[in-house]
Each structure stands twice: as structure tokens, then as C-alpha cells.
Amino acid sequence: MLESGLAGRVCLVTGAASGIGRATAEILAGQGARLVVVDRDAEQLAAVPLDCEHTAVVADVAQPAEVDRIFDEVDARFGRLDVLIHCAALFRIAALPDVDEEEWDQILDVNLKGSFLLCQGAVERMRTHGDGRIVLFGSFAARTGGLRAGAPYAASKAGVEGLARHVAAYAGPLGVRVNCMHPGFTETALTSVLDDVARADAISRTPLGRVASAAEQASMAVVLASDLASFVHGATLDVNGGMYMA
Ligand SMILES: NC(=O)c1ccc[n+]([C@@H]2O[C@H](COP(=O)([O-])OP(=O)(O)OC[C@H]3O[C@@H](n4cnc5c(N)ncnc54)[C@H](O)[C@@H]3O)[C@@H](O)[C@H]2O)c1
């Protein structure tokens, strides 16, 4: 029998109010994990039904003081951290000429700086007990150029992959496994802003002939964080139905 080894583990999930993050929290709850769920959307976060020991933190992952507050809650409530699955991200459609500095900064702050701040805090805690697992979310936009998504999103997600590799190199010797996922087109609130042409185009470029569900992305993230992936480290996993084959 395959065992995830996640029962009782303290898992921090960001973006847990919606889509892949929410599905991740639900799967981890089913595995008997203890959860710290984070989102900036208080109302939607409170509406996530979690049948496990958990605490919810409403915070903006782009703000260092708010990330500190997340880790204060981890420390106060559980006194340790085993898993970080960082799903929170900002997605906006913008053609290159329309991207101004404010837009660039906002998206890079949430998607890339937020990932950095969370990795820093997570590694600091995981190293104290010599074990931890981190899963960061990039995107197929980092592979394909993300023409529909826009420059800040594509660049931020390529940056997340580089960050994951750096943290893997640094934290592997400390017992912390770090991996990055590049989801393909997935049915969530994030992609609901795209029109039918974009969806049809994604499907036509996907050998499996459909888009993914949030649960399909979440289950892979949970596997990466579990004992089942005990020698997977520094990897970037494309979960895209074959849309892009690295
Ligand atoms: N859906 C897709 O097709 C797709 C494709 C490639 C990559 N991804 C990546 O997968 C991850 C999850 O995406 P999703 O589709 O579930 O998105 P989603 O929009 O459904 O959920 C994202 C969540 O992050 C939260 N969030 C946004 N900014 C935040 C901030 N500053 N602080 C705290 N929370 C914040 C939102 O409130 C939301 O609940 C993201 O990193 C996304 O870039 C998604």
C-alpha cells in the first residue's frame, strides 16, 4: 500500500480560498494533515470546509509583514512546519504595450517576491527538524511565452522555477525537498477571465484533448509533498496533458 506520510504533518497552503490551492487543502485534510490555510480573500477562505485541525490566516503574500504574520501563526498554533504548497498568484491579461510599471510590480510582487518570502520563512522552520517539503507553482506560460497571460505573469512564473532551483540547492542539504509545478490550462477562477477562443486554443494544443481540473493539479502537488516523492528534488513538473513536452 502506498502511504503519503502526511497524517499529522503541518502543511501551509496559500491561495487556499480558490482553485488549486483550495483543492490542495481539501486533499491534505483527507490525508489527516494539520493545516494553515492562507488567502487574501477572507470571505472565500472562511467558506472552505476543512474536516481537519486547521487555522486560517487572511494575508497578502506580497507583504513581508503579512508573511511574518503567517509564520507567527504557524509557530503559535503548531510550533513546526513540514510542508509548504504555495499556490497564491495574480493573473491579469495584458499585451506587452499595455503593461505599465505598476502592473509589472504588482504581479512580480505577488508571484515572485511572495514565493521568495514564503520559501525563506519555511526553510528557516523546516531546517530546525531537518525535514520539509516545498512545492511552488510556476505555469506553462513560463514555457510557452504566455502570450495571453502577459509579460509580468510569464516572467514571474519563469522566475519561480529559478527560485525553486536555488532553494532546492540551498535547502536540500538541510533535509528540505523543493520542487516546482508548471500547470497547463486548468479550470479555476484564474482562467475564467479567458474567452472561449483561448480555451479552445489550449485544448487544440493538448494531446489529451481537454483542460485540467483543479483537483488534478492539487493531487500532483500533494504527491510531490508526500513520502511518495522522497527522491524528487529540484524538479520542474509539467502537468499539462502534453501541451508542452519538456
Ligand atoms: N488555472 C490555471 O490554468 C493555471 C495555469 C498555470 C499555473 N497556474 C498557477 O496555479 C496556482 C493556482 O492557481 P488557480 O488557478 O488555483 O488560481 P485561483 O485564482 O483560482 O486562486 C488563486 C488564489 O490566490 C489568492 N491570492 C491572489 N493574490 C494573493 C495574495 N497577494 N496574497 C494571498 N492570496 C492571494 C486569490 O485570492 C485566490 O484565492 C497559481 O500559482 C497559478 O499561477 C494556474
Large-scale geometry: globular
| Text of the CATH class | Alpha Beta
**Average residue pLDDT:** 97
CATH architecture verdict:
3-Layer(aba) Sandwich
Describe this entry's structure for a reader.
The chain is an alpha/beta fold. The chain has a single domain (10-239), classed as NAD(P)-binding Rossmann-like Domain (Rossmann fold, 3-Layer(aba) Sandwich). Helix content is 42%, strand content 17%. The protein contains 8 helices and 9 strands. The protein has helices at residues 19-30, 42-46, 64-77, 101-126, 141-144, 151-171, 196-204, 214-225; strands at 10-14, 34-39, 54-58, 83-86, 132-137, 176-183, 186-187, 212-213, 236-239. Helix 3 runs parallel beside helix 4. The radius of gyration is 17 Å and the shape is globular. The model has no long low-confidence stretch (mean pLDDT 97). Nicotinamide-adenine-dinucleotide binds next to helix 1. Nicotinamide-adenine-dinucleotide is lined by residues 14-15, 17-21, 39-41, 60-62, 87-91, 110, 137, 139-140, 183, 185-186, 188-191, 214.
Features:
single chain; 246 residues; alpha/beta; Rossmann fold; 7-stranded parallel β-sheet; two-stranded parallel ribbon; 9 strands; 17% strand; binds nicotinamide-adenine-dinucleotide; NAD(P)-bd_dom_sf; oxidoreductase activity, acting on the CH-OH group of donors, NAD or NADP as acceptor
Summary?
The protein is of the alpha/beta class.
List the helices and strands and how they pair.
Blueprint: E1 10-14, H1 19-30, E2 34-39, H2 42-46, E3 54-58, H3 64-77, E4 83-86, H4 101-126, E5 132-137, H5 141-144, H6 151-171, E6 176-183, E7 186-187, H7 196-204, E8 212-213, H8 214-225, E9 236-239
Parallel strand pairs: 1-2, 1-4, 2-3, 4-5, 5-6, 6-9, 7-8
Helix pairs in contact: 1-8, 3-4, 4-6
The structure holds nicotinamide-adenine-dinucleotide.
Nicotinamide-adenine-dinucleotide binds at residues 14-15, 17-21, 39-41, 60-62, 87-91, 110, 137, 139-140, 183, 185-186, 188-191, 214.
